[in-house]
Specification:
Elements: H1 23-33, E1 36-37, H2 42-61, E2 64-69, E3 74-79, E4 98-100, H3 103-121, E5 128-131, H4 132-140, H5 149-166, E6 169-172, E7 184-187, H6 191-194, H7 197-201, H8 203-212, E8 222-224
Helix pairs in contact: 1-2, 3-5, 4-5
Length: about 230
């Protein structure tokens, strides 16, 4: 007959599985890291829809608002605007900093936003995909002329990389040999949440100002630096 002996050595077995992370905690951590897309994780999206009231409550403690677009399938946390009334005390620090974008990046975002609006009005496809050459052609009209084509293309590549870093363009894997195919990028639909319809309605006037060199970086949209990152 076996008996428990407190002095017997403990058997070393398989390690215990870690406790599951509560759904709400996981949602908050992922949203604080960046945009969440329905297509990337359907189960996570379902949890977000079910717990969105609690997510909004917890985000509010951090002076953040949940932006959830069920039709387009994305969600992110956005910093609350500063109140217009005079401050009576110290302003709380922003969890997500807001900075004006550079002129070339603002320009590309505006061009992509207009192209996305045209795309949505012209067919049933849901994903707008552009090659690097197509993006370069969008920008070429508005960038300063220069004798060095290679230098211009390098500048375009840097602008594209910055927009990818911000999360508004997603590089796509090459279908064939990478050295024989132009880089392709999907325009992420979250761009519609950052460059709004009012901005688009003033688009032509802004571009004219860009052409004349009278616009500055602050003329473009401001975004939270981390808000749109994946």
């Amino acid at each position: 007959m076996d008996t428990d002996d407190p002095t017997a050595p403990t058997r070393v077995g398989a390690p215990e599985a870690p406790a599951p992370v509560p759904e709400l905690s996981r949602l908050m951590v992922l949203l604080l890291k960046g945009v969440q897309y329905r297509d990337d994780d359907e189960a996570l999206w379902g949890s977000l829809l079910r717990l969105q009231s609690r997510v909004r409550e917890h985000a509010g403690v951090l002076l953040l608002d949940l932006v959830l677009d069920e039709a387009e399938g994305f969600a992110f946390l956005k910093g609350r605007p500063d109140p217009d009334e005079p401050e009576r005390g110290p302003r709380p620090p922003r969890l997500v900093a807001r900075r004006p974008l550079s002129y070339p990046v603002s320009l590309l975002l505006a061009l992509l936003r207009r192209r996305l609006a045209e795309f949505d009005g012209g067919g049933s496809e849901t994903r707008l995909v552009l090659t690097s050459d197509e993006i370069a052609e969008l920008l070429r009209v508005f960038l300063p002329d220069g004798p060095n084509e290679a230098k211009l293309l390098d500048q375009v590549d840097r602008i594209i990389s910055r927009v990818v870093e911000l999360g508004f363009l997603r590089p796509l894997k090459a279908a064939g040999r990478a050295d024989q195919e132009q880089p392709r990028f999907e325009v992420r639909r979250i761009l519609k949440a950052f460059v709004d319809a009012q901005w688009v309605s003033d688009f032509d006037a802004r571009l004219e100002a860009y052409r004349n060199g009278s616009a500055t970086a602050s003329s473009g949209p401001q975004i939270g630096e981390d808000a749109a990152r994946e």
